[in-house]
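Onboarding guide, step 5: your first structure request.
Type a short instruction followed by the sequence, for example:

Predict the 3D structure of this protein.
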Amino acid sequence: MNPKNTPMMAAAFICTFMILNARQINAVEYGDEKFGDIAGGMFWAFHTEGVSIINPNTCEIESTLKTDENGKALPNRYNDGIYMQKDVNDMSEQGKGYIMIGSAIPTFDLPPFTEGGSGEALTFSVEDQELISRIPVGLRPVHSYGVRNRGEFWMHSDDDGHFYIIDLDDVTKHSGKKVKAHVFDENHGKLLWDEADHLAQHGYATSTGEQVIFILDMKERKLISTFNYTNYVLPNTCGGTHAIAYSDVNKHLYVECSGGGGSLEISVMDPINPTFVKQWTDASGAFYEVPDGSYIVATNKGGNKLHVFKPQENSDESSLEFDVDVKGHPSTVSFLPISGSDDEADYIACMPLTENTNKNHMDKNGNLVCDYYGCDGAATAEDVNNGICAYDQSGRELLKVNIVDIEKARAGDAPYNGACGRCNEARNYADDECVCTPTCGSCDPDMKYESSNSGVACVDLGQVVNNGLKTATIVPNAGAVKQGRPYSYSPECAFGRTYRNHKRGGIYDASVANVPYNSIQIVNMETQKLHCAVRLDGNPSRVIYVPPTADGSSNKKDSSAGNNAKTGITGLIGAGILARIITATFL
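The system replies with structure tokens like these:
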């Protein structure tokens, strides 16, 4: 008999949920955050070789999916996804819903048949552990949301600038009614919806390329208006917007500027007639509402900070109360409520780090000197040795020496200075030209990634608020990610943005990693220590948490594909979960 299926253990799992979820929360970002409060589930890891279902307690892969029901291989790269079920509060449905996720690979075998192909929204049955539908949507379906109070899945196409909506009553197709989220130009964007009564009918969308906030009627599924903020911001700043959060305390939006400019605070006291409050020029990032609504935080990846804003109940502008140092370019944040506490902001917030861990890009003291946020201006041989690039006046093309100027290069004359040592020798010239730093930045042919000093950062927000904690705790050896490749418009040998997806399930935060190997890194948020690393066959792009069923089982399907892939610090069951189960069982 499986002990998980006994009435005592079923009660224990339900009590675990009640303990973790003792405080009523309405904060919404993607729509599946509440399921993270239900311990005992599985992490689904989406990678280049399939989908692996991981038990975080044993740190083992229970099974791996590689094809759909027709034998077609699964995509090898994914965008955002979430767990969804028809009724969040129906315990009989818990853990028996769907994973809905965007494919990052265009398809050419689904209508409409266009030259560039179509995007795909994929639906996995959690109960059956299989892909049950592939729904054509616009290309580049990056961000996805579970509008759980309406039983809808919203997915944004960056190619056509629309949201596609899938009803959970029929997960084989989208509704057929797209929601426009652009004025003239289609761009990347995000959605904000909330369970608060004040936004019962309205939502907001952003665009990284247009200076407007889109006002949506969520019930009618349509764009009803826009808010143009151009006249309220400093000239040549905030050319678009990206991350967005809402506080029900002051009825304000917090919006990240794209292309520089900090962030915007906008009142939606009247949901369809926003008013501008403030431009925060020195604080920005990925905005999130702390689950109890007490603060708004922003993970500033480029600035290595966690900004903590305090909403004011009188609807005045917020106050920037705290800045926490988070070294390592933090990604998005997940929140674990501290057990038994009702204090304001008493959560552990964890963020996987995205920093460049290539040793070739560090100086002799181990300090990183080359990454997406800066890798230009080489002027000395030491700079070149550390991977820094030297550019010509365009700032985009690598600096070159013409053979007629070889003596200038040898003399270290401007603009070559000390960055063109390799061009002192005629054998390094091709077609009478020599590139000064051909292996700089992302053009390094021998990346030496080493993640022992990187991993995940965690912050006790209660200590920040009550005791002035200034610095995050780094959980070392919790993996890293290789740096993003440059875009078509990037300078030569530059980097692209680097992302690192993660999800919380119970006391665990699971993040993707491909350094030191392809894996899911599982951190115990209570102890702020590495729990284990689960090795994968492929390079992971997304991880999603699925709660257990109401009887405490985790929908483990019989499979010969299960294997023990645990590495590092493991145990049969997480100490925090075990303590809660024992307590709940003997109440």
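Each response can be followed by summary notes, for example: Confidence is low (pLDDT under 50) at residues 1-24, 558-564, 567-587.
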